[in-house]
Amino acid sequence: MTGPDSGSGTVLPDPADMTSALQAALPQFRQVAWVAETNSTNGDLINRARWSVDDPGQTARPWLQGAHLQAQGRGRAGRTWQNRVGANLMFSCAFDVFLPARQLPTLAPLVGMVATQALRRHLADQHQSRLNMKWPNDLQWDQAKLAGILIESTRAGMAQVADHHLIIIGMGLNLLDARALSQSLNRRVADWAGIAAQDPVAARTRACDLVASAARAWYQALNDVTAHGFADLPTRYAQVDGLAGQVVDVIDNGRLRHTGVACGIDAAGQLLLRNDRGLQAASVGEISVRLHQ
To answer: Given CA atoms 68, 34, 3, 137 in this order, what sign does their dihedral have?
Structure first.
């Protein structure tokens, strides 16, 4: 076993065991692999799509790639994802999505929302509301960041169909080190070990269960929006909204774009803020949301 505490359910098994467990849990995924170390799991899947274009037998998706350590792991806006072996759960999934390009930004809050809902199922009922989402797609425990998601799209390896996109969803979830990360990053950070210390259901959850739950939720959600669209997104998002009713600033490229009371999202995934100018919409993109203290 890899990790500092072999008694914890969220300790990472060795890569071969992690691969086997996920293959069994995700029969709808055509390729599943977990490795000891790589540069970037998102990058691995993008590269695989490029070199498999001439081999139709290798292009059937979805795919999942995970790693105990990412040497060049990335978060949103090009931020580095700090990680060490055993302290982080890092994986990416590749999906074929058939949507107009203008709807791709809406996937950011969608995948964050369904991941939050999926991981809530590994908590006792009375603690589920403590796990929520900060727009556009950070997962929070008691307003401290537990996990981040990076979404990338490419047309590499595609047939020439206008609405056909390859979507890569990468997720990094803290298993340990929340206290050290909080100090080094100067912001509140949570980890699954801290949750498990308070919640017996979380304490029984294995690392592969967390990965499989998020991957299945993304697979189902992407199929659903392809078939039915995003009309129910605002209602579902409200169930996990960690900003509702709070005064927030929306910062874009270092500039203050909006300030107002957060009041959900619209069907395009835009954050809605109410201020003295009425209802304002912040577009999905490389935008950070800062809560007023």
So the answer is: positive
Q: Which CATH superfamily is domain 15-231 in?
A: Bira Bifunctional Protein; Domain 2 (3.30.930.10)
* CA angle in degrees (0–180, nearest 5) for 167-28-164: 30
Which residue ranges make up each domain of the chain?
Answer: 15-231, 247-291
In whole angstroms, give the CA distance from residue 116 to residue 242. 11
- 8 A C-beta contact, residue 233 and residue 240: no
CB 166 within 8 A of CB 42: no
For residues 193 and 207, give the distance between their C-alpha atoms in angstroms, rounded to a whole number: 11
Q: Which of 172, 173, 206, 208 is CA-nearest to residue 8?
A: 206
CATH class for the domain made up of 247-291: mainly beta
pLDDT digits (tens, 9 = 90+) for 88-138: 999 999 999 999 999 999 999 999 999 999 999 999 999 999 999 999 999
Average pLDDT for residues 209-230, to the nearest whole number? 97
Burial (0-12, 13-18, 19+ Cβ within 10 Å), 198? middle
Other C-beta atoms closer than 10 Å to the C-beta of 290 total: 12
Tens-digit pLDDT profile for residues 43-74: 999 998 887 665 555 568 999 999 999 986 55
Claim: this prediction has a pTM higher than 0.85: yes
CA distances from 53 to 20, 42, 81, 94, 159 (A): 26, 17, 29, 14, 9
Query: What CA–CA distance (Å, rounded) separates 134 from 149?
Result: 11
Tokens of 293: 């203290």
Q: Do domains 15-231 and 247-291 have the same CATH topology?
A: no
